[in-house]
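Record type: monomer structure entry
Structure origin: computed from sequence
Chain ID: A
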Amino acid sequence: MAAKKEPTKKIPVSEKTAAASAASAKAFRKSAGNPDTKTPRQTVTRMPEVNRTIKPVPLSKLPKFPISGNPDNRRNFNAVWEILRQLYPMPDVELDFETPWEVLAATILSAQCTDRQVNTVTKVLFKKYKTIEDYANADPAEFGKDIYSTGFYNSKTKHIIGSANMILADYNGAVPDTMEELTKLPGVGRKTANIVLSRGFGINDGIAVDTHVKRLANKIGFTEQEDPEKIERDLMKLAKREEYDDLSLTLIFHGRRVCDAKKPKCEVCPIQDMCPSAFM
């Protein structure tokens, strides 16, 4: 006698919604904190549920920035940051490296290039050139061919080989660990120096402002500035020092996964009610 077939359980709509929301939250978090998953974009189809303990100031009551006239959303920083930290609880870099020098070289290569492509190049590069001396003595023409696919290879070659020579001559072959010294290296500005300090030495001296951080900081209303150094100073007034690097990485992740420059997914963004630029 055939076994009686159990009826299919009907999941209530509320449970379906919760399950979909949990799956979407997982999509937000996927690869954040997992350095083995190099995926710059994730598919997010539904707004995830988040815990809100900080009541935001209504957008209609926000003051205006004095220069641009855009909404000044700095009062809601803690409320926004509370949500973003839930979506990306363990943000980690998507560049592969093992030493402060490799952080520096990979970051220089990442200018106008995807992290995925840089990782493809450095997988071979870091085996071919093992020491700073190897880079300092590299043939520029050959080195340019080695990094050609990252773009702007002529300037990147000059910056990497030049930095290696300067580190050998001025810092006894050790990558310096201060902002002042790092920014003296060829092609190294505050963004690159901040990345080397935080990810190579664990020093939070500032906030790395790349194109994603600049765009989101303005869209969310944390600054009205366009200059990266001024944006950095504005963000440093809002965040705790120990969270500087996490804030930079989190804004980068959110810019890649949700707040895309061309097609922002405002409909699934859990900070839409706190963002002056939502659905614009």
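Annotation 1: DSSP finds twelve helices and no strands in the chain.
Annotation 2: The first helix runs from residue 13 to 29.
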